[in-house]
Input
Amino acid sequence: MKVPRYHRVVLKLSGEALQDPAQGMGVDLSVVEALAQEIQEVHALGTQMAIVLGGGNIFRGASSRAGGMDRPHADYMGMLATVINGLALQDALERIGVYTRVMTAIAMQQIAEPYIRRRAIRHLEKGRMVIFVAGTGNTHFSTDTAASLRALEIQADVLLKGTKVDGVYDADPVTHPEAKRFLTLTYLDVLQKRLTVMDSTAISMCMEAKLPIVVFDMFHRGNLQRVVSGESLGTRVQG
Output
Protein backbone atom coordinates (compact mmCIF):
# COMPACT_ATOMS: atom_id res chain seq x y z
CA MET A 1 0.00 0.00 0.00
CA LYS A 2 1.24 3.48 -0.86
CA VAL A 3 2.14 5.86 1.96
CA PRO A 4 0.34 9.21 1.73
CA ARG A 5 2.48 12.34 1.59
CA TYR A 6 -0.36 14.59 2.70
CA HIS A 7 -2.35 14.37 5.91
CA ARG A 8 -5.27 16.53 4.77
CA VAL A 9 -6.20 17.61 1.25
CA VAL A 10 -8.92 19.46 -0.59
CA LEU A 11 -9.85 18.10 -4.02
CA LYS A 12 -11.50 20.55 -6.42
CA LEU A 13 -13.55 19.01 -9.23
CA SER A 14 -15.60 20.73 -11.87
CA GLY A 15 -19.18 19.68 -12.44
CA GLU A 16 -18.07 18.28 -15.78
CA ALA A 17 -16.21 15.54 -13.88
CA LEU A 18 -19.61 13.96 -13.11
CA GLN A 19 -21.25 14.24 -16.51
CA ASP A 20 -21.68 11.81 -19.37
CA PRO A 21 -18.82 12.65 -21.78
CA ALA A 22 -21.04 11.86 -24.76
CA GLN A 23 -24.06 13.93 -23.71
CA GLY A 24 -22.04 16.73 -22.14
CA MET A 25 -24.59 17.53 -19.45
CA GLY A 26 -26.22 16.10 -16.33
CA VAL A 27 -24.97 13.47 -13.88
CA ASP A 28 -23.81 10.08 -15.16
CA LEU A 29 -24.06 7.63 -12.27
CA SER A 30 -21.48 5.26 -13.76
CA VAL A 31 -18.99 8.14 -13.97
CA VAL A 32 -19.78 9.14 -10.38
CA GLU A 33 -19.30 5.56 -9.19
CA ALA A 34 -15.87 5.35 -10.86
CA LEU A 35 -14.91 8.67 -9.30
CA ALA A 36 -16.09 7.46 -5.88
CA GLN A 37 -13.91 4.35 -6.23
CA GLU A 38 -10.83 6.50 -6.88
CA ILE A 39 -11.62 8.62 -3.83
CA GLN A 40 -12.25 5.57 -1.66
CA GLU A 41 -8.78 4.23 -2.47
CA VAL A 42 -7.20 7.45 -1.21
CA HIS A 43 -9.42 7.46 1.86
CA ALA A 44 -8.16 3.95 2.63
CA LEU A 45 -4.61 5.32 2.85
CA GLY A 46 -5.65 7.40 5.84
CA THR A 47 -5.58 10.79 4.13
CA GLN A 48 -8.28 13.19 5.29
CA MET A 49 -10.04 14.49 2.20
CA ALA A 50 -12.57 17.21 1.55
CA ILE A 51 -14.06 17.80 -1.89
CA VAL A 52 -15.35 20.98 -3.52
CA LEU A 53 -17.61 20.50 -6.53
CA GLY A 54 -18.58 22.78 -9.36
CA GLY A 55 -21.98 22.74 -11.03
CA GLY A 56 -21.28 23.43 -14.69
CA ASN A 57 -22.67 20.07 -15.80
CA ILE A 58 -26.13 21.25 -14.70
CA PHE A 59 -26.06 25.03 -14.87
CA ARG A 60 -23.21 27.34 -15.79
CA GLY A 61 -23.77 30.82 -14.42
CA ALA A 62 -21.16 32.50 -16.61
CA SER A 63 -22.83 31.49 -19.89
CA SER A 64 -26.25 32.45 -18.57
CA ARG A 65 -25.01 35.90 -17.60
CA ALA A 66 -23.74 36.30 -21.14
CA GLY A 67 -27.31 35.68 -22.26
CA GLY A 68 -28.56 38.56 -20.16
CA MET A 69 -29.47 36.84 -16.88
CA ASP A 70 -28.95 38.83 -13.70
CA ARG A 71 -25.64 37.70 -12.21
CA PRO A 72 -26.85 36.97 -8.64
CA HIS A 73 -29.68 34.82 -10.04
CA ALA A 74 -27.26 32.93 -12.25
CA ASP A 75 -24.73 32.47 -9.46
CA TYR A 76 -27.32 31.15 -7.01
CA MET A 77 -28.59 28.68 -9.59
CA GLY A 78 -25.03 27.50 -10.13
CA MET A 79 -24.60 27.04 -6.37
CA LEU A 80 -27.72 24.88 -6.21
CA ALA A 81 -26.35 22.76 -9.05
CA THR A 82 -23.32 21.94 -6.90
CA VAL A 83 -25.67 20.60 -4.21
CA ILE A 84 -27.14 18.09 -6.66
CA ASN A 85 -23.62 16.96 -7.59
CA GLY A 86 -22.66 16.69 -3.93
CA LEU A 87 -25.62 14.46 -3.12
CA ALA A 88 -24.84 12.21 -6.10
CA LEU A 89 -21.23 11.80 -5.00
CA GLN A 90 -22.25 11.24 -1.37
CA ASP A 91 -24.57 8.42 -2.39
CA ALA A 92 -21.88 6.74 -4.50
CA LEU A 93 -19.30 7.00 -1.71
CA GLU A 94 -21.57 5.67 1.01
CA ARG A 95 -22.57 2.69 -1.13
CA ILE A 96 -18.91 1.58 -1.03
CA GLY A 97 -18.50 2.20 2.69
CA VAL A 98 -17.13 5.75 2.90
CA TYR A 99 -19.00 7.75 5.53
CA THR A 100 -19.64 11.17 4.08
CA ARG A 101 -21.01 14.54 5.12
CA VAL A 102 -22.29 17.15 2.67
CA MET A 103 -21.80 20.65 4.07
CA THR A 104 -23.48 23.59 2.39
CA ALA A 105 -22.76 27.31 2.43
CA ILE A 106 -26.49 27.97 1.86
CA ALA A 107 -28.82 26.75 4.62
CA MET A 108 -30.96 23.78 3.59
CA GLN A 109 -31.21 21.70 6.73
CA GLN A 110 -33.36 18.92 5.27
CA ILE A 111 -30.65 18.15 2.69
CA ALA A 112 -27.21 18.94 4.07
CA GLU A 113 -25.41 20.22 7.15
CA PRO A 114 -24.62 23.93 7.35
CA TYR A 115 -20.93 24.64 6.84
CA ILE A 116 -19.22 25.19 10.19
CA ARG A 117 -15.44 25.14 10.06
CA ARG A 118 -14.80 23.36 13.35
CA ARG A 119 -17.47 20.77 12.60
CA ALA A 120 -15.94 20.10 9.19
CA ILE A 121 -12.54 19.54 10.79
CA ARG A 122 -14.07 17.21 13.36
CA HIS A 123 -15.73 15.14 10.62
CA LEU A 124 -12.35 14.76 8.92
CA GLU A 125 -10.67 13.78 12.18
CA LYS A 126 -13.31 11.06 12.63
CA GLY A 127 -12.49 9.62 9.23
CA ARG A 128 -15.46 11.01 7.32
CA MET A 129 -15.25 12.42 3.84
CA VAL A 130 -16.56 15.99 3.62
CA ILE A 131 -18.14 17.40 0.46
CA PHE A 132 -18.44 21.20 0.38
CA VAL A 133 -21.27 22.51 -1.81
CA ALA A 134 -22.92 25.85 -2.70
CA GLY A 135 -19.58 27.56 -3.22
CA THR A 136 -18.90 30.27 -0.67
CA GLY A 137 -22.60 31.05 -0.36
CA ASN A 138 -21.96 34.42 -1.99
CA THR A 139 -22.46 35.60 -5.54
CA HIS A 140 -19.56 36.84 -7.65
CA PHE A 141 -17.27 34.08 -6.34
CA SER A 142 -16.35 30.90 -8.20
CA THR A 143 -16.08 27.38 -6.84
CA ASP A 144 -12.32 27.71 -7.39
CA THR A 145 -12.35 30.49 -4.82
CA ALA A 146 -14.54 28.34 -2.57
CA ALA A 147 -11.97 25.53 -2.82
CA SER A 148 -9.12 27.85 -1.84
CA LEU A 149 -11.14 29.30 1.01
CA ARG A 150 -12.15 25.92 2.44
CA ALA A 151 -8.61 24.57 2.06
CA LEU A 152 -7.27 27.46 4.11
CA GLU A 153 -10.03 27.22 6.70
CA ILE A 154 -9.53 23.53 7.39
CA GLN A 155 -5.73 23.87 7.18
CA ALA A 156 -5.23 21.49 4.27
CA ASP A 157 -1.68 20.60 3.23
CA VAL A 158 -2.41 20.99 -0.48
CA LEU A 159 -5.18 21.93 -2.91
CA LEU A 160 -5.61 19.36 -5.68
CA LYS A 161 -7.26 20.49 -8.92
CA GLY A 162 -8.52 17.46 -10.84
CA THR A 163 -8.96 18.18 -14.56
CA LYS A 164 -9.21 16.41 -17.90
CA VAL A 165 -5.64 17.29 -18.90
CA ASP A 166 -2.36 16.27 -17.32
CA GLY A 167 -1.33 19.69 -16.05
CA VAL A 168 -1.02 23.32 -17.08
CA TYR A 169 0.15 24.16 -20.60
CA ASP A 170 1.36 27.34 -22.27
CA ALA A 171 -1.51 26.91 -24.78
CA ASP A 172 -4.56 24.72 -25.22
CA PRO A 173 -3.08 21.25 -25.95
CA VAL A 174 -6.24 20.22 -27.81
CA THR A 175 -5.92 22.93 -30.45
CA HIS A 176 -2.13 23.39 -30.16
CA PRO A 177 -0.38 19.99 -30.27
CA GLU A 178 2.98 21.74 -29.80
CA ALA A 179 1.90 23.19 -26.44
CA LYS A 180 4.34 22.57 -23.58
CA ARG A 181 3.38 21.45 -20.10
CA PHE A 182 4.76 23.23 -17.08
CA LEU A 183 6.14 20.97 -14.36
CA THR A 184 6.19 23.79 -11.81
CA LEU A 185 4.91 27.35 -11.70
CA THR A 186 4.93 30.14 -9.19
CA TYR A 187 1.72 31.88 -8.18
CA LEU A 188 2.97 35.02 -9.91
CA ASP A 189 3.63 33.04 -13.11
CA VAL A 190 -0.02 31.98 -13.15
CA LEU A 191 -1.28 35.50 -12.53
CA GLN A 192 1.07 37.28 -14.92
CA LYS A 193 0.73 34.77 -17.75
CA ARG A 194 -3.04 34.56 -17.19
CA LEU A 195 -2.88 30.78 -17.21
CA THR A 196 -6.17 28.94 -16.77
CA VAL A 197 -5.32 27.14 -13.53
CA MET A 198 -7.88 28.75 -11.23
CA ASP A 199 -9.31 32.25 -11.11
CA SER A 200 -7.09 35.07 -9.86
CA THR A 201 -8.86 35.37 -6.51
CA ALA A 202 -8.24 31.70 -5.73
CA ILE A 203 -4.59 31.91 -6.80
CA SER A 204 -4.01 35.08 -4.74
CA MET A 205 -5.46 33.45 -1.64
CA CYS A 206 -3.18 30.43 -2.01
CA MET A 207 -0.20 32.67 -2.66
CA GLU A 208 -0.78 34.68 0.51
CA ALA A 209 -1.07 31.49 2.60
CA LYS A 210 1.68 29.62 0.68
CA LEU A 211 -0.75 26.77 -0.01
CA PRO A 212 0.56 24.60 -2.87
CA ILE A 213 -1.74 23.65 -5.76
CA VAL A 214 -1.34 20.51 -7.87
CA VAL A 215 -3.17 20.38 -11.21
CA PHE A 216 -3.40 16.84 -12.59
CA ASP A 217 -5.41 14.49 -14.81
CA MET A 218 -8.16 13.10 -12.57
CA PHE A 219 -9.45 10.77 -15.27
CA HIS A 220 -6.41 8.53 -15.56
CA ARG A 221 -7.01 5.56 -13.27
CA GLY A 222 -4.91 5.73 -10.11
CA ASN A 223 -3.67 9.30 -10.55
CA LEU A 224 -5.42 10.64 -7.46
CA GLN A 225 -3.72 8.04 -5.26
CA ARG A 226 -0.38 8.72 -6.94
CA VAL A 227 -0.63 12.48 -6.33
CA VAL A 228 -1.61 12.03 -2.69
CA SER A 229 1.31 9.62 -2.29
CA GLY A 230 3.70 12.35 -3.45
CA GLU A 231 4.48 11.26 -7.02
CA SER A 232 5.38 14.08 -9.39
CA LEU A 233 2.33 14.38 -11.63
CA GLY A 234 0.79 17.28 -13.48
CA THR A 235 1.83 20.81 -12.59
CA ARG A 236 2.69 22.07 -9.12
CA VAL A 237 2.03 25.73 -8.29
CA GLN A 238 3.86 27.13 -5.30
CA GLY A 239 5.99 30.08 -4.21
